Amino acid sequence: MIGIVVVSHSRALARAAIDLASAMVPEGLLPVVVAAAGLDDGGLGTDAARVAEVVGGADGGEGVLVLVDLGSAVLSAEMGLEFCDPEVAGRARLSPAPLVEGLVAAVVAAASGASVEECDARARRALAPKEEHLAGGPARRVEHPPGDASAWSTTVDLPHGLHARPAASVAVALSSLDASVVLRNARTGAEAVGTSAMELMGLDLRSGDTLEADLSGRETDAARAVLAELAARRFGAG
């Protein structure tokens, strides 16, 4: 599993972002997520030497994704990677993804066993559902694999709809299966890839909405069973 490092001017900001993202996945699946944030005197700022130390500690051999807030945090992260052992630096990836959405997406992807490259890609795409929703354009559609698909559906029985944590539960559970799952809000027609927590959050699934799924691939039956089990548990929302 990859490690994730948050480089921020503010320790409080980094800690809050990490707490939010960490709440999305079960403790046993949580990747190493640590901060290189603030100055030793408690003030705002970043330190390249501290970045290098934290990245080295977060590397377990599968790479480290580094997310930053703004301005000099980018420069400190770049310099910090230069200070790292070359092998560690070679496995690290400095991402331009948005800090909060990107961190949530990366943590969920890492919990699913994704590579540092895939975690970076999902983090970079994490802002798209919010942008599309606020732009007020047509309902989001995703590419469906060729061939026939099996259908599944359920009624969302959650007072607050399919919000962040239930969406992350779906994404993590489906990521280990050899199946393509496209989820859809029957009310709006909006679609999402089942393994993307951020896309699922963007479906705007409210209590009483119908969640539809098109499933295909070698483990279609297993994916359907996973969805049914999650729905029976109200997607982990209690």
**Which shape, going by the Cα principal axes?**
elongated
What is the topology, as strand order, of the major beta sheet? 2-1-3-4
What's the CATH first level of the largest domain? Alpha Beta
Q: Which range best describes the helical content: under 10%, 10-25%, 25-40%, 40-55%, 55-70% or over 70%?
A: 40-55%
The name of the CATH topology of the largest domain is Rossmann fold
The percentage of residues in β strands lies in 15-25%
Main sheet record: 4 strands, parallel
* Distance separating the two termini: 28 Å
Following the backbone from N to C, one meets helices and strands in this order, namely EHEHEHHEHHHEHEEHEH
- The value of Rg in angstroms is 19 Å
Annotated CATH architecture of the largest domain: 3-Layer(aba) Sandwich
How many distinct helices? 10
Low-pLDDT residue spans? none
Oligomeric form of this entry? single chain
